[in-house]
Amino acid sequence: MGLFRQKSELPAPLDGADAVFADLDGVVYAGAGAIPHAVESLNLVKERMPVGYITNNASRSDASVAAHLSELGLAVQPTDVVTSPQAAMRLLEEQVAPGALVFVVGGEGIVVELEKRGYRVTRSADDAPDALVQGFTPEVGWKELAEASFALNSNGGPGSETPGIPWIATNTDWTIPVARGIAPGNGTLVSAVHTAVGRLPLVAGKPETPIFDEAKRRFDAASPLMIGDRLDTDILGANRAGMTSVLVLTGIDRAKQVLAADASSRPDFLVGDLRALHEPYPATEEVRGAIRVRGARVRVDGRRVVIESEGEDRLDLLRAACAAIWRSGTAIHVLDVPPSLYS
Questions:
Q1: Candidates 15, 18, 23, 301; catalytic one
Q2: Which of 68, 84, 101, 217 is 20 to 30 A away from residue 127, measured at CA?
Q3: Catalytic site residue 262?
Q4: 25 in catalytic set
Q5: Following DSSP, what letter does each residue of 75-103 receive, concatenated?
Q6: Which sign, positive or negative, has the C-alpha torsion 154, 159, 161, 166?
Q7: pLDDT for 201-241, tens place per residue?
Q8: Which CATH number is correct for 2-56+207-278, 3.30.70.2190, 3.30.9.10, 3.40.50.2300, 3.40.50.1000?
Q9: pLDDT tens by residue, 254-269
Q10: SS3 label, residue 205
């Protein structure tokens, strides 16, 4: 992991990458506005290598997302945007051929991608669809979920000799950030249908690998760097896809969550904002049983996390604490962690 990188290794997160993939909400923007330093940092990256924008949001098309990013000042084309509906199309093509009738739960993002590939669209189970693709849009309600359940149960499924029509979910994010706070995401809607039909869908979006595979294909990237703000989708997914990962603390997950990250969800780099992509990453060293990152030193003594030195940079202290806790192999819930590490 990058938090353990020594002085002899790569000095900046960008070094060694041949493309950068960035999540959107919490990384590039928060609400309608850009996150400080994100736009200029990513435009600077694009002078060196391709930049792709990877989103689980299924409610908007790639053109719509690109238009929004362009308004924020990013140099971006629709082909730079990789959406979960696009990844879902790869899965769909493995199940049914173009021309098939597909039941849609969701909005523009799914319908546009289906029509690009020659699929027909329905919103009625009575039309006997050949497959179902489910994504999020705020307008989805009980009637749509019930109709999806009818479609999935009308031709096979649990208790039948036939498996039922293919069911593909764009993503299973449990929550989404909105202007008023955190709201239920597509995962809650998928779970409602799952309860009614007794089976699970194929999933295209983060943290599953199809969306990362789609991005690597599109940008012909062998060593991409993934930037995200969520451990359970961006970082877990990047790790599963074999990508180097950066967690930026401008979105959902903050110090408390990263300190408690399990082995599958730990980032290679931990940064405060995207300017750090271009800056030397501080070395992590073991010194007399403690972990040191520049002036910060932290050790785990039995079940106590001990700050030996806070250093001059709060982020270095967090990096040192993460490295010490993760290396200890002790679950964080049994450790006595100083509140100053995550307050």
A1: 23
A2: 84
A3: no
A4: yes
A5: ---GGGEEEHHHHHHHHHHTTS-TT-EEE
A6: positive
A7: 999 999 999 999 999 999 999 999 999 999 999 999 999 99
A8: 3.40.50.1000
A9: 999 999 999 999 999 9
A10: coil
